[in-house]
Design a protein that fits this description.
Blueprint: E1 9-14, E2 20-24, E3 40-45, E4 48-59, H1 63-75, E5 82-89, H2 99-113, E6 118-125, H3 128-139, E7 143-147, H4 161-172, E8 176-182, E9 190-193, E10 200-202
Parallel strand pairs: 4-5, 4-7, 5-6, 7-8
Antiparallel strand pairs: 1-2, 1-6, 3-4, 8-9, 9-10
Helix pairs in contact: 3-4
Protein name: UspA domain-containing protein
Organism: Apostasia shenzhenica
Pfam family, one: Usp
């Protein structure tokens, strides 16, 4: 059973291993965990130089998070890239043994769909927006992918907490941030939002 202490306690799972408790963050955000491989990695493959990148997808129990993960796998990830699945648990949440199961099952799904992509999962307890922005910087992610829900009927007057979270990530994250929403079966494709364009229809 996972247990959370003071600060941000987290679990990490690499695609080649099981769950291991890594470290806990102090008040200054420092951690003893190893730093990620960097925003871009150059890997020699014969005479060719292949550039690898780290993708990050924020996951939760919603269907849109799974859709965002699959979109990242099919539209952004290349062979040898590292896909980080980040599940942020509220600081007020009680300890629960099934907390890592979501990331574990989605990580397994990723490896089954794209075995050539490296996968890791992080489960972190803390404020959602601050935790995501912190992990983007710490792990030097090159692309952040988010699931986008249905827009409010009156966006000028009211926005849901999920809409505000997505907008703040797009504005504040230190990397390219993409929010995706899968269209209905009758329409097809995805609505894609970035810092420069909103609800761009990608028919793919």
């Amino acid at each position: 059973m996972a247990s959370y202490g003071n600060g941000e306690a987290f679990l990490r799972q690499l695609s080649t291993g099981g769950w291991d408790r890594c470290s806990s963050y102090g008040g200054n955000g420092a951690s003893s965990a190893a730093r990620g491989p960097g925003r871009w990695r150059k890997v020699e493959e014969g005479e060719a130089v292949v550039v690898k990148k780290r993708l990050m997808v924020v996951i939760d129990q919603t269907g849109r998070a799974k859709q965002a993960m699959m979109w990242a796998l099919t539209h952004v990830a290349n062979k040898g890239d590292l896909l980080t699945l980040l599940h942020v648990v509220p600081s007020t949440a009680a300890a629960a043994g099934d907390v890592p199961q979501l990331a574990n099952s989605l990580g397994t799904l990723c490896k089954a769909c794209r075995p050539e992509v490296e996968v890791e999962a992080l489960v972190i307890q803390g404020p959602k927006l601050a935790t995501v922005l912190s992990q983007v910087r710490k792990l030097e992610a090159s692309v952040l992918v988010l699931g986008q829900g249905k827009s409010s009927s009156f966006p000028c007057l009211f926005k849901s907490s999920s809409e505000e979270f997505v907008e703040n990530c797009i504005k504040k994250a230190d990397c390219l941030t993409v929010a995706v929403k899968k269209q209905s079966k009758g329409v097809g494709g995805y609505l894609v939002s970035t810092r420069w364009q909103k609800n761009f229809w990608l028919l793919a």
